[in-house]
Amino acid sequence: GMSWADSLHNLRVLDKWRAAVGLEYEIEKPAKRINTISGRPLRAGGTAIGKRTIPGLPRPASRLALGFEDFRTFSSGSILLDAYFEAGGNLFDTGYVYGGGYTETLLG
After folding, report:
1. How far apart are CA 101 and CA 47, in angstroms?
2. Is 51 within 8 Å of 62 (Cβ atoms)?
3. 65, 92 Cβ separation under 8 angstroms
4. Domain locations in the chain?
């Protein structure tokens, strides 16, 4: 069998190959989605991640920010983004240093 490290390397090579040949499934495309990857409707309003008021912002922000450093494609982040949003997360770190503006485009 393959080790965990070998499995991860294999998946990274497959991701690069798919990107090189332009293979992207419909569910992976960054269209406006209202369902999670499992097919159920995305739900807002979770309370697992607390909120706080930040002066100058019109509504409370989550106490935990989600960084976009490793999201290179919509599909690579969609499961985590859905879980974060459903837990009450609404604060994202899309620093320009993460991808020269690409992460801002990915988030929308």
Report:
1. 30
2. yes
3. yes
4. 29-107
Distance, in Å, from the CA atom of 108 to the CA atom of 77, rounded to the nearest integer, reads 13
Number of other CB atoms surrounding residue 34 within 10 Å: 6
Distance CA 104, CA 96 (A): 8
Contact (Cβ atoms closer than 8 angstroms) between residue 29 and residue 74? yes
Pair of tokens at residue 57:
């912002």
Apex CA 96: angle with CA 44 and CA 80, to 5°?
A: 30
Is there a contact between 77 and 93 (Cβ–Cβ < 8 Å)? no
Kindly list the averaged pLDDT for each block of 10 residues, start to end, along the chain of length 108: 92 91 81 75 87 94 87 77 90 82 76
Instruction: Flag whether the pTM goes above 0.85.
Output: no
